[in-house]
Amino acid sequence: MSKGCGKLDEAGTAETRSDETYPAKLNKIINLFESLPEDERRETLVSYADNAKKQEPREGENFNLVDVRKDEECMDTVGVYLHVDENGRAHIRMTLGPEVQTLTRAMTAVLCKGLEGCTPQEILDLPSDFVTRIVGAELVRIRSQTIYYVLTRIKSICKVYLDRQRMARVA
Amino acid sequence: MATHPTQYARPEALVETDWLEKHLKDDGMRIVESNEDVLLYDTGHIPGAVHIDWRADLQDPVIRDYISPEKFAELCSRNGITPDTTCVFYGDKANWWACYALWAFRLFGHEKVKILNGGRDKWKAEQRSMTREVPKYPRTNYPVPTKRFDKEIRAFFDEALAQSKAGKPLIDVRSPGEYKGEITHMPEYPQEGVLRGGHVPGAKSMPWKTATNDDATFKPASELAKIYFEQCGVKPDIDTVVYCRIGERSSHTWFVLTYLLGLDNVRNYDGSWTEWGNKVGAPIEKGA
Fold this sequence. Notes:
A: globular, disordered N terminus, B: alpha/beta, five-stranded parallel β-sheet
């Protein structure tokens, strides 16, 4: 991934991102949503939202980092749990409070599935423009900026993980 | 001390959940869900309810204003609504957006409007039936409204300014932190592009939630009268302007004052703080 990420051409406009910009699993989800008419896109988002609970930590799982908090940008508490395996691949679980909105729930399921097995650095480098390709222009509005919230939280935990790794190497 | 009403001025403007459950299939009635959560209707709704989206359906897609009368007629026609249809609005967030949709319907002169007391949360908490089935109604031919009632129920910037200068009742229904100018967005919400914090000079702070009980139902008439007549200085013979940040929370207060307390001279300043707080030269007060 990360080939040609967000470079500007001579006219200063962003290049069209190629499929290789995104991890394969996420790319598949993006392509699926882009192929759907609006009503089916909404249905699929609701299906993903219904599956958000399946992204919660499972019994016996251990995590390198856990970040559970209630931010002003979100209606309820959101927990992010990061496990990085021996191959350096990230596995993310999430918990959502009952007041979290449907789109945020949908994005939780999309990202947990789509980023499964990426490295923390790949997640950190991920451009955020795919979010509107999944959600669709009709559902992006002033009060829906929280669709980016889950991605921000996942990137945030990956950054903390990488910073700690760097600190440990320096020490 | 003034005697306060023991009943809502227009009790017919509210329906209770148990009543609605028994009248889901009534002729001449349309249940309308309007939410902040854009996908909430799709996750399940009251059987037979149609969805009206506050932005996609009620607002002009380009300029900051409401849809044209022609588009309102089309919206009603495709949802099987006629001028004689009683629209029962409900939604999330204690009916903020339901009241906003109701107010927009009134803007186009639709008269038969009601609110489901307690809204979606109460219906769901009582474990009443929900469905994902989207109803289809025969198309109607709603006549294009000949006027929009802006003058009667809507205030623009200049009118809110005149209200402020005249010392007439202005109610700021935002959270105390927004009113004081400590924050420029609602707690738990993203910033919506406001450059300055504070409130319209002379406005009284009375958060919208003061009018509701914990289950999102409206407080009794006597309590509402104390809140708005005694604490906010609202008087039946003087016009009142209410505002919030984009006009939805103030629609809730507009409904309370107009339908539950029976005032006929209340206007909603829907430009609200996202207009006032960005306007060059607009006077601003800060603090309590």
